[in-house]
Amino acid sequence: METNEPCSLNVDLHVKYFNRCTSLMPQDYTSLDTSRLMLAYFALSGLDLLGAVDKVVSPENKKHWIEWIYAQQIHPDERPELKDQSLGRCGFRGSPFMGAPHDPHACSTPFTAYDASHVTMSYTALLTLIILGDDLSRVDRAAVAAGIKALQLPSGSFVDSLGNEEHDLRFVFSACAVSFLIRDWSGIDQDRIVEHILASQAFDGGFGRGPANEAHGGITYCALASLALMGRLDALDASSKKRCLEWCLFRQSSGFQGRPAKIPDTCYSFWVGASLHILGYYHLVDTKRDQEFLKTTETVWGGFGKYPGLPPDIMHSYLGLAAMALNGAHGVHGLHSSLNISAPTFERIKSQVVWWRDE
Ligand SMILES: [Zn+2]
């Protein structure tokens, strides 16, 4: 019988999967050691979407996580002659892969060649601290803003880390999310970002990594979420918005594909679904078919694989769950789509985070 009842998730199984990821991950993830903070965000934000952080992460473990994340913060060099030039390195690194000593209460970081923050690690560090109940009072806000500022290019785009050359809208999004969370936009030139985003809309309506690049579901999310966080969605004129809306809607077959002529992939139910949510047209998604596709990538170990039949991986597991949050499945909280955090935790920011609470 046809039914429009939202599907239910096996919450216990997913909680076990994400909880397992907080303590032990398969060897294949070793190469992602420099991005360990992002993996922690996927696991803990997954538990948060399932409403399980307080159930499975003990107060003592929460404290350990918070201390470990603060130990990844790169502060200015305390030597006066080096302080200014060290600001561009400030923010969060993904892990202590440079061999930095564990010091969560550090106020300065001695210069180590090649040690620099990564803008996406700063974004995931702040969100994970918030999920764990921290008020961000030990974040060096001015240094984080200065670190972001050093990453913006004259085009408006951002590199990921000081000294790197790779740049695209993924890092623009991370810079906007960090600025939004610390309530300090002094690190970025918003007008140049808006111009750059508008110039990155491809001929078919989606957004590419930069001007004249092929449109892509993940990048389209980054473009729209950046505009939403800056409060600049109205920079998209009616024609651009319509073309983007059509591009996103045409990505759905059962689940969503990331580009034309590709097969559906779990993560694009989030990237493209959240894009439609930001545009205000998520109601045009066939949520039943999307849920049916996601049920085929949900695994017996908990979590989601990229395609049906594949084992779970932490990124697709988190984004699959976030997509289920968007499409109203039972057992998962709602989602704040442009920050990619549970709706209840987003609400908590206003009373929990020091700059939101006191200003
Ligand atoms: Zn994917």
Secondary structure elements and their pairing?
Elements: H1 11-21, H2 36-49, H3 53-56, H4 59-70, E1 73-74, H5 80-86, E2 91-92, H6 119-131, H7 141-149, H8 169-182, H9 190-199, H10 217-230, H11 238-249, H12 266-279, H13 287-297, H14 314-326, E3 335-336, E4 341-342, H15 343-352, H16 354-357
Antiparallel strand pairs: 1-2, 3-4
Tell me briefly what this model is:
The chain is mainly alpha-helical. It is built from 16 helices and four strands.
Along the chain, the helix and strand elements come as: HHHHEHEHHHHHHHHHEEHH
Strand order of the largest sheet: 1-2
Q: Which small-molecule ligands are present, each listed once?
A: zinc ion
- Rg over C-alpha atoms, rounded to the nearest angstrom: 20 Å
Question: Main beta sheet: strand number and arrangement?
Answer: 2 strands, antiparallel
Shape: globular
Helix content: 40-55%
DSSP strand content? under 5%
The assigned structural class equals mainly alpha
Mean residue pLDDT: 96
What ranges have pLDDT less than 50 throughout 5 or more consecutive residues?
none
Q: Count up the helices.
A: 16
* Number of β-strand runs: 4
In whole angstroms, how far apart are the ends?
A: 54 Å
Structural key phrases:
single chain, two-stranded antiparallel sheet, two-stranded antiparallel ribbon, 4 strands
Can you describe this structure?
Helices cover 48% and strands 2% of the residues. Helix 1 (11-21) packs antiparallel against helix 2 (36-49), helix 6 (119-131) crosses helix 8 and helix 11 packs antiparallel against helix 12 (266-279). The chain is globular and about 60 Å long. The strands form two sheets. A two-stranded antiparallel sheet has the order 1-2. It is mostly helical and 359 residues long. The chain has helices at residues 11-21, 36-49, 53-56, 59-70, 80-86, 119-131, 141-149, 169-182, 190-199, 217-230, 238-249, 266-279, 287-297, 314-326, 343-352, 354-357, and strands at 73-74, 91-92, 335-336, 341-342. A hairpin with a 4-residue loop joins strand 3 (335-336) and strand 4. It is built from 16 helices and four strands. The model has no long low-confidence stretch (mean pLDDT 96). Zinc ion (ZN) is lined by residues 265-267, 306, 316.
